[in-house]
């Protein structure tokens, strides 16, 4: 792929897998009779178990059934009978089953990680295989004896309790984004996944450090302290082995990633509902890439090259899976949640649109991920071509050690004395940032709510001022005192004298002074009402954008935990190899330097992105506040000008016209609709889907829960 094609967001076709690779991709999960030892257990944290079983998984496909899918093998495995205790609404995209209380199921694996089980559910027309929380069911075999099986000794070779049918052991494929199990429910697991192996193992870094890259796939180059600019011989050799330009990554001094492709912008917009006879209704989003012509980055008026395609959420899922497999050493932002509320509600569609735009925006910000072939393919091809070609990207084997074999860095680019300390300081810093951002998000929610309450207070002040000059009662203000005065001093004609014939706040007809005063006070009341509306709109639109953007900088430690783990593990191997003078350990040291250059380049990427993010967030917040208060100041100055001559004198020339808000005095608009909250970050510890706040408030009223607002007593 040429640089010009990358700049235009275009993509060439990659080579098709060879016959051997296709056979490997179709290989079903191994059992005790086809490759793995009978006592293999995915829970054993050994690199050998991982590396032998890693490539036997099945990559995520796009809603199509493959006859060679290993899931079909699991469907044939008998399981322990069980019964669902509670109803569970599983997410199909995360391979979770949907069960009702009392449904009969079969448990294939009781424990596949973090409290989840692999189960079969018998439904009308077939069998469904998926994940179910362990606490949501109970075994029915525990309540009856089974004379056909030996009950003498407990099983030690299987997690299946005694007395249950014991099938041949089946390996559980460790969780990795894009493998047979898709990305797990990180919101419930606090960022955890089913993978029991460290990222040092799953990314292929350990295999690269210990063994290097496979010679049949990677050219036999001595990867010891290569410069960031490989010579012509190296480039020719890589090209002969099918290594494309977008698969070669360079680290500069720092260490930091070398910029191969200039940044560009991505917009996700114009959602539209579509109908499919097979999958039903779905939503598509327009994805527009804006590329600045070379040399015009400093001129904002230069017209950008635009490439617009239409994508649905499942396409983003496939993109994330493919990127995770091809760039294991790169930190990718977490994919947004599949569903927040009603699938086709305006609030949900807008929330998903914003989340997808922030997600793809952070992808293209990364100096390495932005030139990945599958990304340029995602941003440029038409729908039919995408559906036809994406299985090829998903079926490609994980890059593993070959990713690090394609990383080139300057010689002696590391300070060996600071390697371990850097990881410790980076981990502590990202933890502190995450904690601080969580607190900021909570406070920002309260600030937005205070703006809404200030809006209600300004409206109440406006209504009270109108009630004063018109002598009309305000529904929310108690009139007990006035009623007592009426009893003490009866009035023969109760309505007479409150206003004169010109609508002035006076008992004298023709009083020009009261007419000027009344009209000026009325304009002040209308201005206060407008100020209240400004506060409300600011909280619902401007501040909501900032509140949503704060998700992008939250949980950095959880996001970068794989990099930290890989770095720490590599540093240990690096110091062990430096302590030995053998030639083999010298090669291991060189390969460790490649991994460490990668991890430190990722830390540097976070460093400059953090500066950019918080600078942008702070400036946008200040700009929004300045704009709000400038508008309020302009309104207040205009209201104050009504009391200055010559305008004040001209107000006596015509009778007063009623305010458009007088009719609301009997039913004032003080209670605003529930304030829209941002959708939760996928790593939030206890996220709540946006349900109606009105329902929560209704429950609070039933329980007589007091309002915490300082303005609560007014309404």
UniProtKB/TrEMBL annotation:
It comes from the Eukaryota. This is Uncharacterized protein. It comes from Thelephora ganbajun (Ganba fungus).
